[in-house]
Amino acid sequence: MTHRYTAGANADQLHLVAFYEARQPGLGSDFDAEVGAAIARILAFPHAGAAVTGAPRGREIRERSPGGSRSSSPTRWTGRWP
Fold first, then answer.
1. Which of 11, 16, 29, 39 is the most buried (most CB within 10 A)?
2. Which residues, 6 or more positions from 69, have their beta carbon under 8 angstroms from its beta carbon?
3. Cα–Cα distance between 27 and 12 in angstroms, integer?
4. 47: which DSSP letter?
């Protein structure tokens, strides 16, 4: 199994790396390394997860702050990152 980024996904990741790096030196590269590690795990174990057709109740997409805390109310994707 291989992976590839679409142009938009690549631009989003580069934007987020710059965003986190501006907040704290080294944070952007840590984020980039974690994304790479997650992709490596997915490629190594492509069948490890279960197929899900919808979010389980209580697991809707929630807004996440750079500090990692989550808001208590579900939110819809706005089409842009922080």
1. 16
2. none
3. 16
4. T
